[in-house]
Amino acid sequence: MKQSKMLIPTTKEAPKGAEALSHKLMLRAGYIKQVSAGMYAYLPLAYRVISKIENIVRKEMDSIDANETLMPAVLPAKLWKESGRLDTYGPELFKLKNRHDTDFILGPTHEETFTTLIRDSIKSYKKLPLILYQIQPKYRDEDRPRYGLLRSREFIMEDGYSFSIDDEDLDKIYNNMESAYRSIFDKIGLNYRTIIGNGGAMGGSDSIEFSAPAAVGEDTIVYSDDSNYAANLEMAKSIYEPLQNKAEIKDIVKLSAPNVNNVDEEVKALDTTKDKLIKSILFIADEKPVLVMVRGNDEINDTKVKNYLCASELTLANDEQIQHFANVKSSYIGPLDLNKDVNIIADNYVKNMINAYVGTNEDGYYFANVNAERDFENVDYNDFRTVREGEISPDGSGILKFTRGIEIAHIFKLGTRYSDTLDANVLDANGRQKPVVMGSYGIGISRLLTAVAEQQSDENGLIWPKQISPFDIHLIPVNIKKDDQVKVSNEIEKELLDNGYEVLTDDRKERAGVKFADSDLIGIPIRITVGKKATDGIVEIKIRKTGETIEVKKEEVGSTISILLKDLK
What we know:
It holds the Pfam family tRNA_edit. It is found in: Cytoplasm. This protein is of the alpha+beta class. The protein folds into three domains: 48-72 and 109-236 and 401-454, Bira Bifunctional Protein, Domain 2 (BirA Bifunctional Protein, domain 2, 2-Layer Sandwich); 253-382, YbaK protein (Alpha-Beta Complex); 471-567, 3-Layer(aba) Sandwich (Rossmann fold), CATH 3.40.50.800. The protein has 16 helices and 31 strands. The strands form eight sheets. Strands 3, 7, 8, 9, 10, 11, 12, 21 and 24 form a nine-stranded mixed β-sheet that branches. Strands 16-14-15-17-20 form a five-stranded mixed β-sheet. Helix 2 (44-63) runs antiparallel to helix 6. The protein is globular, with a radius of gyration of 29 Å. The model has no long low-confidence stretch (mean pLDDT 94).
């Protein structure tokens, strides 16, 4: 491919507003172009990378007998209304109407669509298990799209769905899918972790998240420094170490502390420390009130609370709701003498607190010397706090460390969450109707460009792994006005193409410095420079990743390239 014939609009500077390194480099290297906020055009180089990623995905899906399909991106809203997600998915859902005033959405994911396909197509367990997948654009109306392809409103995704007659088959497919995803990311050349993930709006039970460590990552990965434990911060746990406070238990005392609005003001007003406070926060879980308590120096983990309650929706109570259920300002709410309609749950560490402070449900007052085991009734205890770095890993091996990561894939065991709702049943071996057992699996294809670019780049530009690089070799005749350089370049290009290599030849009438700078920016693994020594049949080969250069005779180019690419990851 001649570079003069390709659309590769390189620039020296990234446009204003580009923050992430990957975003800046892909814009500067002419891989992507913003069309509108959160919407990008994939230019020829980027599309070649995406195509190679998709082909790797297809080969791995073939290996586990997954069937590729393609569903519409515009979906009838009634399906999502049936599943209950039309109202619970949130404001990121694109909603629209057709000329007949029928409601539709732009698909952010396709559980409902695939479930109804199986419902209408499969009637017997003998046709199961079955795995279907697709690769297509998805749509989420991000409030603040940022970091280029990392958080965009339109993105390319591989989403797969499995259908089984029982949990045993689901487990096999789930494990096979995990192995296939690992193989995909290994072949791409990505550094990644598998971590415990949260099903979120997907529903379901077990889930594994694949995360690529990167400074720009919006997720926090919690991992042990001495074991394989790793989890998303939302799901991370640590060893529970009960408090060993042997202080004498005192009688409850009511204290005046007016005009307190937050924990810091509470500490000052009561002349105490955060670890002696019980922080009480009122939530609304599926329209029902629940009071959640943690130590004053801990943060409530909304995801753990939501999962514990099996709630579809969890929100902080507003002032009106707090007044209705507690008749008090939020900073003075507490578990004692609280409206009986309010469910009360507390973090494990609250149970062992000695002589703590808590709100009285009366404005301006707190109770001192509160002891959970003595004073609380009808309180359920569990892990509802966000872990902190340095705590002991839940497997007892090592301490917890934090790092940033980009979520690149997620797999879920959905069970019968969607088949129950959408009546996707089959006849089992006994002739009885049984809901199909489902799994859901997804890879952020376009996100992978960001993840790789973040991990494999330098101050000069991108450094693509050979498996997904837009081309194998960048061939640069320094001066196309020199017949000897053009002749040698043409001979090398023909040999490489005949041997199955993908070659980008820079035939532009540009200065050598411009060509070399663009080459580093574009990031193709191997560069061959045909310069002044072309007359002697000698060219220079440069490895983009290491910067190493060697001179070889033109007759040795093919064998040298074969060795170099074999050694590259």
